[in-house]
Specification:
145 residues; 6 helices; mainly alpha; globular; disordered N terminus
Amino acid sequence: MTPPSRCRDGAAAPDLRRTRLAAAGAAVLTVGAGLGLRAVATGGTAKYGGDALYTVLLLTLVVLIAPRLTPLRAAGTALAASWAVEFLQLTAVPAELSRHSTAARLVLGSTFNAPDLFWYAVGAAVGWLLHSALAPSEPAGRRPF
């Protein structure tokens, strides 16, 4: 049985709590950045900057849920989720849900826009770089992938 203060892989539980707390703080900052961008920018800058920040936000949520993922896996997961939501917009489901709910409109959008796929990748790359720079380094072989 694993002692309560340690995790399965030997990492101290306080380290995971610290990572989760940092991810939660980063999520709040990302939402603030998105709102700030909408307040000061218009057109493509606001739209595509928001797309990139959407993926950064998803990355912070992935780290919050699974703090042991490597920065590359967390970014890849966030990018896959962003692309999945965008491709879901090829169906009528997000548009219908968006008509009835502001939350659905914010999370799912309503219409497919191919350039969004690129900007999600930009957000994943920026998030990966930031996560890599800020994540505590571990000895080789300790972290999967």
